[in-house]
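Lab notebook, bench 4. Still working through the backlog of constructs that have no structural model yet. Next entry is a single chain of 383 residues. Request: give me the C-alpha cells for it.
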Amino acid sequence: MQEAVIIEAVRTPVGRRNGALSGIRAEELAAKPLAEVLRRAGVSSDLVEDVILGCVSQVGEQAFDIARQAALIAGYPIQVPGTTIDRQCGSSQQAVHFACQAIISGDMDVVVAGGIESMSRVPMGSNMQGVKLSQALTDKYEIINQGLSAERIADKWGFSRKQMDEFSLESHRKAIIARNEGRFAKEIMPLQVTLPDGTKTMIKEDQGPRDDTSLEKLEGLKPAFRETGSITAGNSSQISDGAVAILIMSREKADELGVKARFRVAARTVIGSDPTLMLTGPILATQKILRKCGLSIADIDIFEVNEAFASVPLAWLAETGADQAKLNPNGGAIALGHPLGASGGRLMTTMLHELERTGGRYGLQTMCEGHGMANATIVEWLE
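Model written out:
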C-alpha cells in the first residue's frame, strides 16, 4: 500500500467580502494557487493525474466543474482532469482526503487538492436558487440556521457572551502577531489586484484581522441570530474570498522525482453528527481519528479547529481536554476569514507551515460542516 505525502501547499491571501479579491473571477482565482503550487515544488503539470477542488456554492462562476476550468486556466495539459466536490465547509479538507485515497489505493501518484470560494461574487446560499429543503427531510429532523445551532451549543455548554467575545478577540490578537512576525509569508502567494478605482496593487496579507478591535467593540455588537442570543458578527467567522492548492504524491513518486516529502498524511476520517446542533462533529471526529491513529490528545503539537462560531472550538476544547495554547496558534476563521470551499485547505496549509516553523511532529485538523458532519486529518512532519 502506498503512502501519501505532502510536497507543497500554498494559498492566496483571504480577502474580505467585497474586498481586494472581489474583482477576480472565481475560476481565475482558483487557478492561481494551482499554478503556484507546482512552480514552488518544481514539478511539471504533465505529472498531475487529477485536480480535486472543494467548492460549496457551485453556481455562476463556480459552476460547471470549476476544478477543470481552473486547471485549464492554470496551464495544466488537457489530459489532466478535474473534479469539484461539496462537503460543505470541509470541502477542501475532503479534497485532500480523496487525493490521499487515490494515492494510497495505487490508482494515482500525483494529485493536486484544494479549494475555492469567492463569497463576494457567488453569495452563500445562491446555489439553492430559492428552493426550500425537502419536507421529507424536515419532517425527520429540525433543520435550523447554523447561527442558531451555534446559539444552542453555547446554551448546552454554558458559554457566556463574554467568554465567546474574549475567544474572538484572542483570535484577532494571534492573527495580528502572526502577520506582523511574517509567519504567513511562506504560505501566501501575493496577488496583483485591480481596486474599484482602477488602481493596481499587490495584496500580500489576509484582510480579515482587525487591529482596531477590542472587547468593548465586540461587546457592543447586537446578536445576529436570536434577539436575546450571544452569537454576533464579532464572534462568528467572516464571509471571505480565497483559494488554496496542496500537492500530494506517493512517497515512491516523490523519491523517484527527487522532490522533498515534507509531511505524511497519517490518518483521515469523516463522521456524521446531530444535524440540528450541526457543529459538534469535530468532537466526534477528533475522538475517532485519535483512536484510529493510536495517539492521545497530548501527542498532538498543533490543532486547527475551524472557528465557524466561537462556541464551536470552545465546546471542542471542553470535550477533548486539549491544551488551548495549541489551538489555532495563528488565529482562526473569526480573524482570518472563512471562504467556505477553501477553508479546509487554508487550515491545512497554515498548520503545515506552523509545524515546520515550530518543529512540531503531529498536527490535527478538524472542521464542522453543514447538516452535521466533520472531517479530521492528522499529519506528521517528516523532519
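Notes after review: The mean pLDDT is 97. Residues 161-180 form the longest helix (20 residues). Flag for follow-up if needed.
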